């Protein structure tokens, strides 16, 4: 019973963190101090430099600026909007500082419904391009992440890296 409760607590912690961030990035705040600068060109440069500086390969850019590298192909059909996905992940900033990981919660997969706005836009877009069993790295520009909002120890307007593994799709 305690183990089940801990698993649920870990899942809720991860869900709450991503949901809060998603809600914050979706909010339109009428605040003169909110930075509404378009960082897409800066983010593109940062991502390209990060790929080069770290000798990364296999990345494909989508039309919104999300970069995806599949490091291990999955074995199923692509994930559709509305499907529940359970995944392991590690999230970090481009200085390789980890800000969240399922590894810090006994590797309990985080579950969410794709395309429902429960997570940051970069996740909804990226996971929809993957299949069950796939492992991938997502480089998410700030506009598809938390945008002008600082969340926890993630600075506002940060480009994010997520290493993900799709454990289950329902």
From TrEMBL:
Q: Which residues form the PPIase FKBP-type domain?
A: 82-170
Q: What is its EC number?
A: 5.2.1.8
The family database entries (PROSITE patterns) matched by this protein are listed as: FKBP_PPIASE, PROKAR_LIPOPROTEIN
Q: What is a single Pfam family found in this protein's UniProt entry?
A: FKBP_C
Which InterPro entries does the record associate with it? PPIase_dom_sf (IPR046357), PPIase_FKBP_dom (IPR001179)
Q: Note the superkingdom of the native organism.
A: Bacteria
Recorded catalytic activity of this chain's protein: [protein]-peptidylproline (omega=180) = [protein]-peptidylproline (omega=0)
UniProt key word Isomerase:
yes
- Its name, as the record gives it, is Peptidyl-prolyl cis-trans isomerase
């Amino acid at each position: 019973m305690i183990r089940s409760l801990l698993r649920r607590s870990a899942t809720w912690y991860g869900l709450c963190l991503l949901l809060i961030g998603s809600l914050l990035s979706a909010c339109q705040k009428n605040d003169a101090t909110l930075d509404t600068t378009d960082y897409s060109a800066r983010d593109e440069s940062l991502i390209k430099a990060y790929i080069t500086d770290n000798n990364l390969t296999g990345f494909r850019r989508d039309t919104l600026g999300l970069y995806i590298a599949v490091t291990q192909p999955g074995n199923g059909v692509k994930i559709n909007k509305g499907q529940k996905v359970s995944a392991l992940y590690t999230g970090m900033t481009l200085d390789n500082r980890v800000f969240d990981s399922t590894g810090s919660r006994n590797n309990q997969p985080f579950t969410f419904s794709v395309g429902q706005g429960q997570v940051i836009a970069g996740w909804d877009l990226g996971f929809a391009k993957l299949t069950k069993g796939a492992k991938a790295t997502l480089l998410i520009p700030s506009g598809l992440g938390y945008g002008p909002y600082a969340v926890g120890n993630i600075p506002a307007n940060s480009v994010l890296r997520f290493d993900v593994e799709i454990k289950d799709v329902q």
